[in-house]
Amino acid sequence: MTEDKEIPAVESPAGPAPAASAAPTKKPGTTSTGARKASAKPPRSRSREFALQALYQYLVGHNEPTAIDHFTRDLSGFHKADAVHYDALLHGCIADVDLQNGLIEPLLDRKLTELSPIEHAVMWIGVYEFRNCLDVPWRVVINECIELAKEFGGTDGHKYVNGVLNGLAPSLRAAEVAADRSRNVGTASA
């Protein structure tokens, strides 16, 4: 019978290896998936989240907007959201369903009915903000929608949302996009 011998640790010439960290490094104020923590979100971002939940109920459950609104306002954390922006998103998106779908549909590679309800609702939010919230820069609209899709949507849903909204931005925010792009061209050649 052989005796188990302990094998001594061999130190590399560079010294001992650093201890492996159990948790991956992440930015402060973010979750392990990279999404912003709820405490780090501004009221408008929170209003978009609540509007997304409400629009999801509208798309999936075909619930009546007033009932959805009452239910959503009772959710935990709603008091930290921008209620005025939430109202505008929820009721504005529902009021303009046909117009918004008409703007989104030509940029899709599938039927509108085949879209995930999350990505569909996120695109509605983006289109609504492009058209009606001119105080929100177009790049912020896209970024906020990407964040929503990352947090609530499928694995690569945010990429699809990004592609559609980037395709819509030049027509819905023509002057702003053109000015922004001309500034970027000027700084790239400097």
What does this structure look like?
By secondary structure, the chain is mainly alpha-helical. It is built from 8 helices and no strands. The protein has helices at 43-61, 65-73, 83-95, 97-104, 117-132, 138-152, 157-172, 174-188. α6 (138-152) runs antiparallel to α7 (157-172). The longest helix is centred in the N-terminal third of the chain and has 19 residues, at 43-61.
Question: What distinguishing features does this structure have?
Answer:
58% helix; single chain; mainly alpha; globular; 190 residues
Gap between N and C termini: 77 Å
- Gross morphology is globular
Uncertain stretches of 5 or more adjacent residues: 1-24
Rg, nearest Å: 23 Å
Percent in helix? 55-70%
- The chain-level mean pLDDT equals 83
Order of helices and strands: HHHHHHHH
Number of H- or I-type helical stretches = 8
Derived from helix and strand composition plus strand pairing, the structural class reads: mainly alpha
Major sheet details:
none
Give the percentage of residues in beta strands.
under 5%
According to DSSP, the number of beta strands is 0
What is the structure about, briefly put?
With 190 residues, this protein is mainly α.
What layout of secondary structure does this protein have?
Elements: H1 43-61, H2 65-73, H3 83-95, H4 97-104, H5 117-132, H6 138-152, H7 157-172, H8 174-188
